[in-house]
Specification:
Blueprint: H1 5-8, H2 18-58, H3 62-98, H4 101-107, H5 112-136, H6 138-152, E1 163-174, E2 180-194, E3 197-205, E4 211-223, E5 228-240, E6 246-256, H7 261-266, H8 277-290, H9 293-308, H10 312-324, H11 332-358, H12 364-387
Antiparallel strand pairs: 1-2, 2-3, 3-4, 4-5, 5-6
């Protein structure tokens, strides 16, 4: 610290002062090392043991196993970002505090908030990187890994649901007491799906006031050009509500106006971990029309989780910086123990709140953000206490 105060704060590379670059170096280099370490441990614990079993028991090719592990790496790198930010800030500021460098910086008038600022900005950068990684890399890599493994093991992932496609539509109507209630509007049922052809189709249409329509067809196929369903070899029965009159007609081909949603529901083959936000919202539209409330709630929670997860990096930065800057002689083993405790508490709280959101106790927003908001509060309070 032989440099004068003006030199310490003079702008240099990327507009950063010498102090900023010095603190950033204390954090970024450990961060990169920890990302590599944690993601490698994650792959070893979450993938390699299982893939070795697939090799020995099912004869999975080594080349396929290596590709599978490489495709799973992005998921574990994304998981490693928050933990790495926590450990890097905790260790970095603990070292500065242990060697009295924080005291030297504060003695020249630098506030603790200013000292923590480089780490905070770095955590925002990592949060953005984590969001992009989780949106554009992880879902695609997970899906490719799952498809490749299933093909290699002779377990072709069914692209289309095999049987019993059931798609209802509902509408709100007023009863005699002017109370709104939900009633069935239209129902599409198919016994099975072969390729893109529905077999054994029955359609109930109650959308016209006073008229019920029942259509039974041997097969149906979505007409992409016209945006309608083509029904083949069936019968159509139309009657008024009390059944006092009706008409009956057979057909070889009937063009019927109905959404593509039954085919979307049947062909839904990615789980939530294999979809980004845009794909999840597209699935949500189909689920809304099917009125699958449980699944809709899960997708809403999942979308909020996708947005909230990157901000764990900022939360962990606040906690790591606040604890690391406290005037304690904290060695790396203690730092690691504190980090493990923070990660455990955070993820338990997050797991419980997400579970509450999935069953409707919490709103999707609260379920996804509760742990983050708690972490922001605790981190901010600890930092305030350290600064005081």
């Amino acid at each position: 610290m032989a440099l004068g105060k003006s030199n310490l704060f003079s702008k240099g590379l990327f507009g950063l002062s010498i102090v900023d670059r010095y603190i950033a170096a204390e954090i970024i280099l450990p961060f990169l090392f920890i990302v590599g370490l944690v993601s490698s441990l994650g792959v070893a614990g979450g993938t390699i043991f299982d893939i070795v079993r697939q090799i020995t028991e099912y004869g999975l090719l080594i080349s396929v196993a290596i590709k599978f592990i490489l495709l799973k790496m992005p998921q574990f790198i994304a998981y490693a970002f928050p933990v790495s930010v926590l450990l890097a800030t905790l260790m970095g500021y603990s070292r500065l505090s242990g060697q009295s460098e924080l005291i030297a910086l504060r003695s020249i008038g630098m506030s603790l908030y200013r000292i923590v600022l480089p780490a905070f900005l770095f955590s925002l950068f990592v949060a953005g990187l984590s969001f992009a990684f989780n949106e554009y890399v992880v879902p695609t890599a997970n899906y490719q890994a799952a498809v490749m493994l299933e093909k290699a093991l002779g377990e072709e992932r069914p692209n289309l649901q095999a049987d019993n496609i059931f798609y209802p539509e509902y509408q709100q109507v007023s009863d005699e007491n002017q109370q709104q209630q939900k009633v069935l509007k239209r129902l599409f049922y198919a016994e099975r799906l072969e390729g893109e052809t529905m077999k054994g189709v029955t359609v109930l249409d109650r959308s016209q006031e006073g008229i019920n329509v029942v259509i039974i067809a041997k097969s149906a196929k979505w007409n992409l050009g016209q945006g309608r369903w083509d029904l083949y070899n069936g019968t159509s029965y139309q009657s008024n509500v009390d059944g006092s009159s009706g008409t009956f007609a057979g057909f070889e081909h009937l063009s019927f106006q109905f959404p593509r949603a039954p085919l979307d529901v049947a062909s839904r083959d990615r789980d939530l971990s294999e979809m980004n936000i845009a794909q999840s919202l597209a699935q949500l539209d189909a689920l809304k029309m099917a009125n699958d409330e449980k699944k809709i709630r899960q997708v809403y929670v999942r979308v909020q989780q996708r947005i909230a997860f990157p901000f764990v990096c900022v939360v962990f930065c606040l906690l790591g910086s606040a604890i690391g800057t406290r005037p304690l002689q904290t060695n790396r083993a203690t730092s690691f123990g504190v980090a493990v405790a923070i990660v455990f508490i955070y993820y338990v709280m997050n797991f419980v709140s997400v579970a509450m959101g999935s069953v409707g106790v919490f709103s999707p927003f609260v379920a996804a953000w509760l742990a983050n908001l708690f972490g922001f509060g605790v981190g901010g309070w600890l930092l305030f206490k350290s600064a005081a």
